[in-house]
């Protein structure tokens, strides 16, 4: 306390100056309309600026939520129309309606968002923000922009672990075009844009740009979903088969919004398979 008093005594002129300035400022504000109005306008400008910033942030957040909702809805609608691609046989209106009802009765989709992914290793993984609470189960296939992208291997209540195409342990059944040969597609661990389709007979005529689609044999995906396009034909004359370098349709550099496919008739298929396994004489 004594040191404070001594400090005030030593700086009495400064203290007196500050007190007089405060008294003068208060008198100006209370007796002169122009400075008072100017101070008020400055305060209003700051308040308006702050309100504008808060409003912009809120608006941006709202637009972001709307954008995510639209992208998820687009993913769902895109999956519902997988079978209505450019190369399908023209059907009359009744046949289209019946086909659509059959497809929707067998497969449905669950949109999701990718929250973790890797594409720089040999055994890459993907994690999505949907799990068992959303109906995701191991064995379900995942699409990126309508192209096959991966297979669900494990789930928690709210997340899913996916083994993508770009995984050394993955094998996929794929077909060359609508009526072409079926082979096994694998990833060689080199480039995330390409995979290798193996065991294609030498008699099969293949050209760069030919479509590669799912065969439907594995049950993970329905037949006819885009895998990619033929990039290069690789033939070793010592072999009886040729291999195809496939440019993948899924973009693992930018994968974000995806769809999981659920086969609603899988239980019937499993029941038939179990019956066949338990009756080897068939």
Layout of helices and strands, plus pairs?
Elements: H1 2-10, H2 12-31, H3 33-80, H4 93-106, E1 107-117, E2 126-128, E3 141-144, E4 147-155, E5 160-164, E6 172-176, E7 182-186, E8 194-201, E9 211-214, E10 226-235, E11 241-248, E12 257-263, H5 266-278
Antiparallel strand pairs: 1-2, 1-12, 2-5, 3-4, 3-12, 4-5, 6-7, 6-9, 7-8, 8-11, 9-10, 10-11
Top keywords for this entry?
282 residues; alpha+beta; Thrombin, subunit H; 6-stranded antiparallel barrel; 6-stranded antiparallel beta barrel
Description:
With 282 residues, the chain is α+β, with helices and mostly antiparallel strands. The chain has a domain at 110-263: Rod shape-determining protein MreC, domain 2 (Thrombin, subunit H), CATH 2.40.10.350. The protein contains 5 helices and 12 strands. Strand 10 and strand 11 form a beta hairpin. It starts with a helix and ends with a helix.
Short recap of the structure:
This protein has 282 residues and is α+β, with helices and mostly antiparallel strands.
Average pLDDT figure: 75
CATH architecture of the domain at 110-263: Beta Barrel
Could you spell the SSE succession in H and E letters?
Answer: HHHHEEEEEEEEEEEEH
Distance between the first and last residues' Cα: 103 Å
Largest sheet data: 6 strands, antiparallel, barrel
Strand tally is 12
Q: Which structural category fits the helices and strands?
A: alpha+beta
Q: Please identify which CATH superfamily of the domain at 110-263 we are dealing with.
A: Rod shape-determining protein MreC, domain 2
Given as residue ranges, the uncertain stretches (5+ residues, pLDDT < 50) are 83-105, 267-273
Strand content bin: 25-35%
Shape verdict: elongated
CA radius of gyration: 33 Å
- Helical content (DSSP H or I, runs of 4+): 25-40%
CATH-defined topology of the domain at 110-263: Thrombin, subunit H
CATH domain class name of the domain at 110-263: Mainly Beta
Count of helix runs: 5
